[in-house]
Specification:
FAD/NAD(P)-binding domain, 5-stranded antiparallel β-sheet, 10 helices
């Protein structure tokens, strides 16, 4: 209303996303907040319930537990961060348990009641938990409505986002879509790259978004990071022709020096050509270290390239090389796996 008309030859839509709010009775309470509302708080809640065990929910659960809050996560699926590597999910759940974060997995929230300045959250089959604040982190939806896009022929889905190709060009050739509204990933760094690609194409160049090397950082304690395929995805695509190597931080000198030995690095490759398919890490500074995997995947490196390359000592980055060596059966700083004894027929 009362807006200014702007004429253009090329346009890039980057309207972002909004936090979803499920239709659960009681969530209209001011004590039920999204991530923005949580950051607006002036006091640390003594008791925090997090609805949703995805990336955002786990990150805030980790942060507020460090602040001293009693934290409970309610997640309807059987695992935290369900789209990440299963071993990383299990490691995070184990470490959250050790930190005193209560996990209520495979449980659905059924209602919230506010009374005397606190909330009673009902979930599962009649279970309840008391809290002072509740974080709603069940996902985000693309901001695509009210823009007039459909009227000019731009194809979109209100739940998935604007349809855009690898150039981030929509169904109207001179209009592009990037970031959360485009429906690929909901990550700041992917939006940055998509913006670069869309701008180049809008100026007449030819650029595409390569989805192979998209890093997946999760800023919990311990940190988690992945790039490429998870182990399950690799085995689904390549069957038994997959090799995996896991190198624990307890065998890395720098991690021992820093007294940060929780977690591991996992290397995943296919056996025919030795192509590196993915890296998954849990532990100290892995959200920084994952860039090595991004470069390796973008370059279509083999596991031998990673495993046989020199890594400075003592550094955390040695663990990437060491995981590759484990995957190749050439571990140096781990004892050899015991072979199964032959049984007489």
């Amino acid at each position: 209303e009362n807006g200014e008309d702007v004429s253009f030859k090329q346009a890039i839509v980057a309207t972002g996303s909004f936090p979803l709010r499920p239709p659960i009775p009681g969530l209209e309470s001011e004590r039920c907040v999204d991530s923005t509302g949580l950051l607006d708080q002036t006091e640390v809640p003594r008791r925090l319930v997090v609805l949703g065990g995805g990336i955002i929910g786990c990150e805030f659960a980790s942060i507020f537990r460090r602040f001293g809050s009693e934290v409970t996560i309610i997640e309807m699926l059987p695992a935290l961060i369900p789209q990440e590597d299963a071993d990383a999910s299990k490691e995070l759940a184990k470490q959250f348990g050790r930190r005193g974060i209560t996990l209520q997995l495979e449980k659905q929230c059924t209602g919230v009641e506010e009374k005397d300045g606190s909330l009673t959250v009902a979930f599962g089959d009649g279970d309840t938990v008391e809290c002072d604040l509740m974080l709603l982190s069940v996902g985000r939806g693309p901001l695509v409505e009210g823009l007039g896009l459909e009227e000019i022929g731009v194809e979109l889905d209100r739940t998935k986002g604007i349809a855009a190709d690898e150039h981030r060009r929509t169904t109207v050739p001179h209009i592009y879509a990037v970031g959360d509204c485009a429906g690929y990933w909901q990550l700041a760094h992917t939006a940055f790259r998509e913006g670069e690609v869309a701008a180049e194409n809008a100026m007449g160049h030819e650029a595409v978004v390569d989805s192979r090397g998209v890093p997946r950082p999760i800023y919990t304690d311990p940190e988690i990071a992945g790039v490429g395929l998870t182990e399950a995805e690799a085995r689904e695509q390549y069957g038994d022709d997959v090799a995996v190597g896991v190198f624990p931080w307890v065998a890395n000198a720098r991690a021992v020096m820093q007294n940060e030995t929780v977690g591991w690095v996992k290397s995943i490759h296919e056996n025919r050509y030795g192509e590196l398919l993915g890296l998954v890490m849990v532990g100290p500074h892995v959200t920084d270290l994952i860039e090595a995997g991004v470069v390796a995947l973008d370059a279509e490196s083999t596991v031998e390239t990673v495993a046989d390359g020199m890594a400075a000592h003592p550094t955390l980055s040695e663990a990437i090389k060491e995981a590759g060596l484990v995957a190749l059966g050439r571990a140096i700083h781990l004892p050899p796996k015991k072979r199964a004894k032959a049984t007489a027929e």
